[in-house]
Write a structure and sequence with these properties.
By secondary structure, the chain is α/β, with parallel strands linked by helices. 43% of the residues lie in helices and 15% in strands. It has 3 domains: 110 residues, no CATH class; 59 residues; 185 residues, Rossmann fold, CATH 3.40.50. The longest helix is centred in the first third of the chain and has 33 residues. The structure holds guanosine-5'-diphosphate and magnesium ion.
Length: 413
């Protein structure tokens, strides 16, 4: 027996190749689609692989006469065999049970059953192909505008969905690109991609607020537990003091978690920045008074889960008492879309003025961050990109972010 694999755009083509090379007696042993996750990307360019086989000894069996009609007959026969029994007759009309066993069906020849197996395999492959076509049609119907889109735009649209960008935003980005690009350029993947990245960048407000010149600025960081609030405050405080030459004060309200105060205090001592600890909301104005002459005061808060309603209300009292100029909600880039939504909903009572995207270095996909920036319309102030204080932080930048969102890879900002 000779066995060989054939690849083509459809099972039919691959089968024809096989028949040409191995002869009309050849049968399909196995077939599969070779696309996997790439099916979305390579619209209409699926590849099928079949494994064909042929006996070295030529058989006079009907394998060679195999045709599509035979497949249909085999299929029909299989369906009849599987059909429900005839409706039962009333008991009185039931025929007498037969005394003798019914004659056994004639034994089929091995070669014909081989042909039937091959037919069924072919049938399965045909059905798989039909399923693919149906899926593509459903997709095209769901995205009606799709039919008119040039190939490069279709591919880019599907690539956006693969980055977990919500459908409505992916549609909006694709439409913007289509409107802005002249028709001849819409066929160029490079031109389309460049404009997609620019459109993503243009859709999100980026950048930290300019430094307050006259009055002291009070900045509070809030967010879930472990997202990097304290580390980020240390980075920001160090940058303000060392790079920008401002006088900085620190307040920690995180008296809940063991070691939290020490974490910030250790940094404050090393960086020579004054720090105060506050236990109740009522003590915040007093603490702020002590930093009256400072340029900027950072307030670190206790991490709260988005479901802890009572604790979130307590935290809100702290934030209100601080009369903060800026409230930055820290969101870890590793968080999925549903959780990001729940967090931003719960923390909306703190009226965040900015979002900080932390742990960008550890994220595998950035679409959800784009969605949340779109959904909340809150400007993104900083990206944090590692554990090192103060190096691993950068002022958010639209183009860097857009490239990460589109490509799904972290690029050091
Ligand atoms: N990889 C990575 N780790 C970070 C980043 N920011 C903070 N971390 C780490 O996350 C952990 C929790 O940080 P912490 O500041 O205590 O979080 P908090 O509970 O929100 O105050 C620590 O191990 C930090 O070193 C970041 O940008 N990237
Ligand atoms: Mg902390």
């Amino acid at each position: 027996m000779r066995i060989k694999k054939f690849t083509a755009g459809s099972v039919k083509e691959a089968t024809e190749q096989m028949k040409q090379e191995l002869g009309p007696e050849a049968i399909v042993l196995h077939s599969r689609r070779l696309t996997g996750a790439a099916v979305l990307k390579s619209f209409g360019r699926d590849q099928f692989e079949i494994t064909g086989a042929v006996d070295d000894v030529t058989e006079p069996a009907p394998v060679s006469t195999y045709s599509r009609r035979d497949v249909r007959r085999t299929f029909e026969a299989a369906m009849t065999a599987a059909a429900p029994p005839m409706p039962a007759l009333p008991a009185a009309e039931l025929p007498e049970p037969e005394q003798e066993a019914a004659p056994a069906p004639p034994r089929r020849r091995a070669s014909s059953s081989l042909a039937e197996v091959s037919d069924m395999v072919q049938l399965k492959a045909d059905m798989e192909e039909m399923k693919q076509t149906m899926q593509q049609l459903t997709h095209q119907l769901r995205h009606k505008h799709f039919g008119d889109l040039p190939e490069a735009l279709k591919e880019v649209y599907l690539a956006l969905l693969q980055q977990d960008i919500e459908e409505k935003y992916a549609v909006s980005i694709t439409n913007t690109v289509m409107k802005k690009l002249p028709p001849q350029q819409q066929r160029s993947r490079t031109a389309v991609e460049q404009l997609v990245v620019q459109t993503i960048a243009g859709g999100v407000t980026m950048g930290a607020a300019p430094a307050a010149n006259r009055k002291r600025k009070v900045v509070v960081l809030v967010g879930p537990t472990g997202v990097g609030k304290t580390t980020t405050i240390a980075k920001l405080a160090a940058v303000e003091k060392l790079a920008n030459g401002r006088s900085v004060g620190l307040i920690s309200c995180d008296t809940y978690r063991i070691g939290a105060i020490e974490q910030l205090k250790t940094f404050a001592v090393i960086a020579d920045i004054p720090m105060q600890v506050v236990y109740r909301a009522a003590d915040i104005p007093g603490a702020l008074k002590k930093f009256q002459k400072h340029d900027i005061v950072f307030i670190d808060t206790v991490g709260r889960g988005q479901k802890a309603k009572k604790e979130l209300q307590e935290l809100r009292k702290m934030v209100d008492a601080a009369k903060a100029d800026e409230v930055h909600l820290v969101l870890s880039a590793q968080t999925n879309m549903a959780t990001l939504s729940a967090i931003t909903d719960s923390f909306s009572i703190m009226s965040p003025t900015h979002l900080i995207f932390s742990k960008m270095d550890e994220a595998a996909i950035f679409g959800p961050l784009y969605n949340i920036a779109q959904k909340t319309r809150i400007p993104v102030s900083f990206f944090t990109t590692g554990q090192a204080v103060p190096d691993d932080i950068s002022v958010s930048d639209g183009m860097t972010f857009a490239r990460m969102v589109y490509q799904g890879t972290y690029a050091h900002a």
